Each structure stands twice: as C-alpha cells, then as structure tokens.
Amino acid sequence: MSFLGGAECSTAGNPLTQFTKHVQDDKSLQRDRLVGRGPGGMQESMRSRGMMGGQDQMMDEFAQQPGQIPGAAPQPFAMEHLRRELDQFQTTPPRTGSPGWAAEFDPGEQARMEAAFAGPQGPMMNNGSGFAPAEFARFQQQSRAGVPQTANPVTSGPSPMMSAFQRPMGMGYMGMGGMGMMHSAYNPMAMQQQPMEATTQDKGKGRMVELDDENWEAQFAEMETADTQKLDDEANDAIEAELNDLDRSVFTSNSSKQADYDAFENVWKKVQAETAASRKLAEEDTEFNVTDSLHMGDMGEWDSFDSLNTRFRDPQLGDYMFEEENMFKNVNNPFEEGVKIMREGGNLSLAALAFEAAVQKDPQHVQAWTMLGSAQAQNEKELPAIRALEQALKVDPNNLDALMGLAVSYTNEGYDSTAYRTLERWLSVKYPQIINPKDLSSDSDLGFTDRQILHDRVTDFFIQAAQLSPSGEQMDPDVQVGLGVLFYCAEEYEKAVDCFSAALASTESGTVNQREQLHLLWNRLGATLANSGRSEEAIEAYEQALNINANFVRARYNLGVSCINIGCYPEAAQHLLGALSMHRVVEQEGRERAREIIGGDGGVDDEQLERMIHMSQNQSTNLYDTLRRVFSQMGLTMAAATGAQLIARTLRDVGVDVIFGIVGIPVVEIAEEAINLGIRFVAFRNEQACSYAASVYGYMTGRPGVCLVVGGPGVLHALAGIGNASANNFPLLVLAGSAETTAVTKGAFQEMDAISFLTPHTKFAVRASSIDFIPGAVKNAYRTCWYGRPGPTFVDLPADIIQGKSTPGFRLPEPETSLVPFPPKASGDPTLILKATQLLKTARSPLLIIGKGAAYARAESGISRLVEQTQIPFLPTPMGKGVVPDSHPLNASSARSTALKQADVVLVLGARLNWILHFGEAPKWSPKAKIIQVDICAEEIGRNAGTAELGIVGDIELVVDQLVSSLSNWRYAPSPAEGRFPSLLAESAKKNEAKAQNAALRPTPQNSPLTYQRAYHIIKSTLNSLTPFEEGNIVYVSEGANTMDISRSMFPLNHPRQRLDAGTYATMGVGMGYIVAAHEAYNASSGSTKPKKIIALEGDSAFGFSAMEIETLARYRIPALIYVVNNSGIYHGDTTTEDAWRVLQDQTAANDTKSANGKKGLRSTSLLYETRYEMLATMCGGKGYFVRTEEELEAATREGFANDTVTVVNLIVEPGIGKKIGFAWQGNSAQDGQAKL
C-alpha cells in the first residue's frame, strides 16, 4: 500500500500529505490575521508557500532544532478552554470506554488499520488523533521486521520554524464526547507526542472489538500479532519507500534507531497513562483532581491554548465574554461609534468595545454582533470573533454576513468541517433552489474521508450557484469567495485565484466586495497567489489592499513575507518594521479617542485606559520572530540603535535629503549615520556659511533646510544663519551637540545654555532629555520651522544622548507616518477679498508689489494671471524678481521711485513694509495710499503704514486665485484725464533705462579700470550668447553694496527663486553658502532636470566673509562661476595706484594718521590693494582669472561658464573714490555728508 496515493489517501485524507502541506503552505486562507495559527506560530495570514524553505529543509529544521528563535519569548498556551472544560468534568456523568476507541483496534480489517494510521493532517502534528495505539503497533511491527527507519520529526525538539505545530494534542475539547480518555501529561514538550484529539473515525466496515478494562493490553498485543501476519511484504516495501522519501532531509544513522524506538516507547507509556486517567474517570471518582494526573506547569503557559491548528469537531466556545471595563457603556449610540472607528481605519480594540457596549444595551442587535465579530477577527482575535458571530446567528440564523464571516473564521482556526457546513448553510439561505435548508449535512464528527466527501459536496453546490449567475462582471462575489475558500483548502490555487479575482471584478453587490471589505479580499487573493508560487503578483495584490486601507497591518506583514520569498530581505525588513509601527500609530489613535470618549481624564488613569482598549493585543510576536529571521538572513541583529542612528533615521523619515554642517565631537556620529542612510552631507569650513546655506535652501525648495553644528562656539557661529532665517522667514532646523547631561554646570566641554540663548531668536528650541525623546523632538522642530510663518527652530543634543543606546524594543515610526506633509494652506476672508477687489477697481493708480514671500509660496502662476487680466503695473522686490518675468511690459522696476510715490492703492503680496519698502511711509510713498497687505502671518498686517482693516491673512497663491476670480473680467484702463499714472511710469522708466544704458555701453578708456555698469554689461551679453536668457538656466547670487545694487537691475530674471542676495537682513557673507544651497536645490537632487549654472557676483568685502568655502565648492565639484568685484575696499577703495596705497599703508603702520581732511593712513573701509582672490580657486584645483580689461573679462566668462570646476574671476573695477556710501535704489533723503547704509 502507499501512504501518498489511493482513494483513501487523497490530499485531505492522508496524514503524510497533510504534514507536507502544513510544513510548506499556509492553512489559514481567509484568515486575515497577523499571528500564526498555533501558539507563536510562523503561519501568518496568507503566508506564501516558500517562505520557510522547501519540505526537506523544513522537516530537517523541525527534527533537529530544539529551541525557539533566539530572543523570542516562549509561547504560552491559553487556559481559557481548559478551565471551562475542567468545569465540565465536575458535572459530566460517569463514562465507560467508548466503543469508538475499541473500534480502532479491530484486527480483522486491513482498511481499518490504514485508516487508523491515516490520521488527519499529519503524524502527531496537526491532527486530531495523532498516534493511536494501532499506529504504534504498526511501527513496532516494522521495527521488529527490520524495516529501516528515519528519525521521526515528532521525537525531536521543537523547531523555531514550526512552533505553530507545537501544541498539546487533545486539550481544549475534553469532555465533548467521543472518547472517555484523557491525557496524563500536559507538558508542552511532551505533548508533541500526544494525540491531539481523543477520537479517531471509523472509515471501514469491519467488526468492532470491545476491549476489557482489565486485560486490554494483552488483547491489544494479540491484535498486533494478528495484524502483523496480515501485512504483506509489498505493503511493507511501500511503507519503507514512502517514509524514506518523505524524510530524506532528516539525518539517518544506525545509532539513531534505538533512540527512535525509545522515543516511541515513550509515546506508548503516555498512552498507558491516558488509559489510567480514563479509568479514573470511568470509576466515578467525583473528587478527581486534574492536577493529580496532569502536569499542568505554570497556568500562564496555557494562555494561548485556544489557538490550535486543525480541529475535527465543531467548536464549542461558549458565550461571548465581555470586558468588565468599557468606556462606551455610557455612550448613547456605541454602535455608531464603532462603525465610525472601523470606517476610519482606527483602533480595532476600541471598535470592539463599542460593539460590545451596543450588544449589551441590545442583545438582539444582530448587526452589532456581526460587526463585533468582524472587528475581533481583524484584530487577531479569531475565537472571540467566532463567539460573537455565533451569537449573531442565534439572533438571526439566516444572517448572510455572519455566516460568511463564521466560515472564514472557522477556516482560520482550522475547523475545516465546520467551515464547510457553514458555507453549505450560507448557500442554503441565499440559494435554496440549490440546496434545501432541510437537506443540510449533519453536525456529526467526520473522519478524513467523510470530510473530503463533505468538501466535494459543498464545492459542487457552490459551482452550481456560480453557474446561476451570468458570466463576467455579474457573478455573485460572495459565491466566488466561498468557492475560492474551498479550492484553496484543496490546494487548487489556480482555481482559487480565479474565484477571488472574479469576486473583485464583479459589479454585483455582495458582502465581500463592499468598500470596507475590499482590502480583505485583496489580501486573500495575495495569499493565494503567494501559495501558488506567484510572489510578485501577490505583492501587487497586497499593495492594492494597502492602497484601500493604509493601516491594514496584515497586508503589510504579508507583503514582507512575499519579499522574503523572492529574496528581497531589506525590503521585507522595511515592510515588517512598517507593520510594527502601524501598531503604535493605531494604539496612539486609540488612546486619544478613548480620552475623548471618557471626557478628559474622566477619573481613568493611563493603566486603566490601556487595560480597557487592550493595547497589548495589537502586538504580534510573530512579527518579531519573522523580523529576526529576516535580519538573520541579512546578517544583521535587532540591536538597540544609538542616539546618532535615531537622529539620522528620523531626519530621513521626516523628509530630509541634505544636511549642511560642520562636524566635531559629538555630532560627527550623526553625520556619519546620515551619510550611511543616503542623506547628502555637505561639510563647510565655517558654521556661518553652512547656516546661511541651510536657511536659503528652504526658500528655494519649499522644504526646511537642516544645519548640524557642534555646541558652544558652533552654536554662536550658527546664530548668523538663525538670524538670517528669522529675518527672511526661511524655514531652518538647526541641530547642535552639547555637553553631557550629567556634566551641566560643571564647566563641561563647550558647555553653553543654548536653549536660553536661542529661545528669543527661534520659533522653537528644545533640549533632548532622553534617546526615546529624539524622534518626537526632531519631527516637531522640523514641522514648526515650516508651518505657519517660516523661521528657525533648534534642537540641542547632549553628547550622552547622541552616543547612548535606545531602550529595548524601541522602534522608530514607519517612514510613511513620520514624513511631515506640506503645510496646510488657508484662503483669505471672502469679505476682505471683496473689499480689496472694490478698492482696486476704483483706484486711479494701482500697483502690485511682489515680494520673496510670493516666490516662496510658489504663487507665480496666479500672480501672472492677475497681472495679465488686470493690467496693473507691478514692482518686484530684489528676491521677488522673476515671479512675473522682468521682461513683462508692466514691470515698473525702472520707475521704482515714481511707482511708489504715485500709487494710490497698493496690493502688497508677500513683502513686508520694512526698510526695503521705506516702511510704506511718506515721502517715498503717497501719504494717501491705501495699502492692501497679503501675508501668511497676521502680525505683519497693519505694521508701519499698513492698515489692519485692509489686510488679508492667507496663503498668497490661494488669495491671489480668489482675487482673480473676484475681479472677474475687470481691467485697469484709466481715462486720459485720470490716466497719468501709466504715462508717468513710462517716462520715468525711459529716463532711467537710458541713463543705465549709456553707462553700460560706454567703452572703457585704455589703462582705466572697468566700471560696474560696463563690467556687468559684458558679463550679461556674454552669458546671453551662451544660454538664452528666457530659458532660466542661470541662478544668480549677489552680495555687497554696489555689487548687489547695480547687478539687481542689470541682470533681469524671467523665472522665480533664481536670484539670491543679502535679503532683508542685508547679510554680508552669505554668497558662498548660497552657492552651495543653490547647487543642492537645483543640481544635486535626484529630481533635477537640466543643471543650472550658478553665477555669483561678489563684492570683495562680502567675499572675504566666507572665501575659504572655495575649498568646499572644489571638494564637492560645484562648478560655480564667481566674480569677485574688486575695488580694494568696503564700498570704495582709497587710491587708483598701488604706490599711493602703499603710502597710506606705511602711514598706518607708523601710526601717522592725524589729519584735518582725512587723507592720511588706511581708512576703515580699506582692503589690501588688488588682492589675488583668484588664487584661492587655483590652489583648490579650480580655475582662476585675473581680469582688468573688457577682452579679458569676456574670455574669462566664456571659459568659466564651460568649466566643470569652481572658477573665480578676480574682476578689477574702479575704486569709486569719494562716492557716497549707500544703496542707490533705496534713495535715502539724508543730508549731504551723512553716511547712507
């Protein structure tokens, strides 16, 4: 005979086939659970077939690995059923030996002997009968006959891979009839050799033999001898071949034979112990104490006993057990609360409590019972789910939702026969024409053959039901799912895939394809695909489930498992970690929602709250076990993370892709970890430059820039960038190291109270108090610097926090939950929008002022529409240039003074009424001008000359869209009598442009230095010949008084955020940092398209603040073209020749500077005469040019533009002796002789 073939030995009817099925496949179909089906098992929901390796490998691991996965907690068994069943023993009437038990030892029928060995689901593992005495007798026959044997997996220690199967066999259903015997040893290790269930089914037609209680052992030996005589040699050969083939992977040796035999002797001794225990019951020992005969061990070890794998009897779980503490008891409509929580993907434990309260208020609320079952099933609590759904059926026996849910849950828990009968019952309700409810299968216990017959019968019924529906999208989805479950159980995966796919494609309304159920259906499809070896397709299905319900932990877990199957271990680890982080997110949501329900504290402390919502139930040891296995495959360990690692990972997760900084003790570790994570780290030579770079990076990208510096002096230097970000409203996060927390006040290394120092200058400043505090602090600081009015924030990181290790079990949130989204946007007050619209329509001289806030808001599209639609002239501020192209005919930049003086209604978009705009006050502005301010910050409204009543708080892009809509088709078109404003602007622009053009076109006399205007004209003309001005392929950086002021008007922009200058703070020294930031924003990121050339126009004084960053540019291969406009002084130089300058130098050195006219010695604005700045580039491997003439300047420009490394052009210009100090465009009205800044 063959153990793996024949009519009696089908897939469902053969124990060895069932065993191979269990060690490779997931038997949980429709389980939709996170944890395994047995205590601590690895059989997660919808697990793919190949996850744990092939059959031979699995059996070998099971046979040879005695321990749990290292680090995994031992898996307890649940005591719930045990306690309930023991209670039943006290009231159970006396019983005698069951005829069914004796029937198993019938020596007269070979078929009965086969059936006895062909126990359900596999030898001693997942079956209900395990090793019956007849099976042991067969083994003894083979041993005595010299049949070679392999090491049996059951006799070995538990495998970490097979922990789902390590459970006491026979527990949980004592006293439910069928046997009259009870096991004597309940040690989890010993129980691997115990029969799982005390009944073995009759499958033949042989006679029944009643065993005598006194002489049963002798009778059994006689049967054994008789049976041995009937076994033919051919059958023995087949047995040997099958066993050897099946256990090929298990190490076999002659020395192991005796050990194997001894192991089975142990089995037999336990069978004898069972008999003794059964006799004791049969003798009506009413004082029988279970613990007298059973080794119970620690009662806590049995807490998960009800999670057994495969059962043959109907579950008898009793009534639903409610939680004693439930905050929903006082809620008016707890059912609606539960539905809302489920719909929003919230905390499932909380939803279950709501439904519990609902059914306690109304025990006849069938929908509440059904929803309770659904919530518990999805929350990894299948047995409470079954109890709830069974209660629903008591209220409404024909409830289709409850029946389908029960069928799925029964399948998940291994109650296959009950699942088949439940599906049959569901079909009789929905399709009575196929099966009459009166003709349903009986509830009697079934053996393997009978269960297979039932399976085939129900499958045929479902096929008939499917044939009743039209083909295509009109198929009944529920029928398809039921059919898919049945095919899955038979391992007909391709058919099961077709059924689940048909259910998803169906347009008909059913239970399984409702919106709130679709994620479950996609997960079931994924599991089936995975078990059929189609992991890539399974991954797509799981992703569909997650798209529908992002908090669907089981699908994320299964996604990780499929990644394991295809060898993508890093991706698997990411998904498994994501599943763990989902628990924390849902837990926190549950806590917050519970607090809402009970109203603040409500007299409930945190411990009570945790107990109410069962937060521990959301954890899964299976997740950790699988994660450990993935890390093992990757050669990693789940070691505690250091503070530096947590900081770097948090920065990555919130969305940071570049950090600007200078490292030292203790922050170097943070930078190194960031680099390891793929974050670009740009190391500067000075904290000022890196903080400037980080601040303006936020302006260009719209996301916060991040700066990392050391403590003490590093923080002091970074204050420059913090101040720059604050003045310009740039989003900036500064991280700094500091002294150890235990050394504060002791004079520690670089000790400084940075929090007190920076609080006045930042939006948010915090010191990390522990490692676990880091993720929240960094995320909050990142969000705060970005949301609302942008500005700087600061996080102080003590050395012991950076270098310490996280607490055991601490995990960062999943990146998807940590990523900080773009700030919410607010529209303007509709009333104020209407008021502004009316003012603009009635204005004689309207003007738009476009500030860098409009550029930061990305409002260029809406503002361009506003200008085109209304034809209102506009005036950009220096960094607002390009929001509307400078080439636009309505640009009033060339008539700036006239525009401000004549305008009667001014719409200010993202600009402040500060010194740049003369505070909005006379005499630069008309004293009668009405100013409409649009700003994200309410504090700016009404500032200086602004009028609070006319201010609009909101996002500029949205407010401009509102204005465009409100103005409709109105256009500014003044009558000739009232329309002097456009003509005044035109006249002023013409005059000023002619003056600038004359200065630009005036040739430089021989042996004379270039003027600013002539030099800029040559640079601009040359650049325009190399790249079209309209394409916006250049980013301009400019700093220095004359350099910045004159270049602003000579280098027009047609694109926003491509001019960076000293800004609101008029900060000198920003240039080199701004170059690096522009490169990172426009060229270094993965999303960059065509690289932009960065052109810097640097005054020699401003360049000196951060000139050493030329080395930084060279190190990172940033091919910037830098013009150092060299007049040998701040604002202006002292002499036109080097000899004259040397005289002044000698006078200063001799302290001979006293004079009536200020003509002796170097002045406070003097710099070294014609310093060779270009050599900084050449010494760093770049290109340097010293330029005096127009020809040299054009040649250097062409070559420098083409260079692929940093280039410095040292441009000598006129010294400007005797010229006034000031910004010409500012036009200050100070008296002659006063310095102008």
UniProtKB/TrEMBL annotation:
Name the family.
Belongs to the TPP enzyme family. Belongs to the peroxisomal targeting signal receptor family.
Q: Biased-composition ranges for Polar residues?
A: 11-21
Question: What Pfam families does this protein map onto?
Answer: TPP_enzyme_C, TPP_enzyme_M, TPP_enzyme_N, TPR_11, TPR_16
Q: Using the UniProt record, give the first listed, main subcellular location.
A: cytoplasm
TPR repeats: from-to residues: 366-399, 477-510, 519-552
Q: Where is the Thiamine pyrophosphate enzyme N-terminal TPP-binding domain?
A: 642-756
Q: Name one GO cellular component term.
A: peroxisomal matrix
Stretches for region Disordered? 1-52
Recorded catalytic reaction(s): these are: a 2-hydroxy-3-methyl fatty acyl-CoA = a 2-methyl-branched fatty aldehyde + formyl-CoA; an (R)-2-hydroxy-long-chain-fatty acyl-CoA = a long-chain fatty aldehyde + formyl-CoA
Q: Name the needed cofactors.
A: Mg(2+); thiamine diphosphate
Q: Which organism is it from?
A: Aspergillus bertholletiae
Q: What is this protein called?
A: 2-hydroxyacyl-CoA lyase
Looking at the record, the residues that make up the Thiamine pyrophosphate enzyme TPP-binding domain are: 1040-1210
